[in-house]
Amino acid sequence: MSEHIDELCNRIASAIRDDDDPSDIFHALCALYTFNMSLLTCPHCRKQAAHALKKSIPEMLANANREAAKHASENPTQQPMTCH
Fold first, then answer.
1. How far, in Å, CA of 2 to CA of 8, rounded?
2. Contact present, 72 and 80 (Cβ < 8 Å)
3. Which secondary-structure segment (H or E) carries 25?
4. Does the pTM of the predicted model rise above 0.70?
5. What is the H or E stretch that residue 28 is in?
6. Domain ranges across the chain
7. Are 49 and 37 in contact (CB under 8 A)?
8. H/E element holding 32?
9. What is the pLDDT of residue 77?
10. Which of 66, 68, 67 is nearest to 81 (CA)?
């Protein structure tokens, strides 16, 4: 990632608090993505943005699984969050 993207990610992450529910965080991020997509004046560009997000899902899941395994190995006594 570029330095600018890293900085933007850090700004967004700093707004998320420890007591925020992960589901609420994901809904807020989706709403933010949707809003910013709506600012694109070109319908083709909006469609491309949606397709880019969809295409990135397998990589997102792989990264999340890797990070979860890393977190679990570094924090063996911490109980995983129950989500259902």
1. 10
2. yes
3. helix 22-38
4. yes
5. helix 22-38
6. 1-39, 42-72
7. yes
8. helix 22-38
9. 84
10. 68
> Would you call 6 helix, strand, or coil by DSSP?
helix
Cα distances (angstroms) measured from residue 49 to each of 29, 34, 64, 72, 79? 14, 10, 21, 33, 36
Q: Which residue has the tokens 């600012």?
A: 39
Half-sphere exposure of 1 (CA within 13 A, CB side): 8
Structure tokens belonging to residue 12: 């967004």
37, 46 contact by CB (below 8 A): yes
Band (84; pLDDT cuts 50, 70, 90)? low
The per-residue pLDDT for 78 is: 78
What is the chain's length?
Answer: 84
Spatial separation of the C-alpha atoms in residues 78 and 72, rounded to whole Å: 8
> How many whole angstroms separate alpha carbon 59 and alpha carbon 69?
15
What is the tens place of the pLDDT at every residue in 25-53? 999 999 999 999 999 999 999 999 999 99
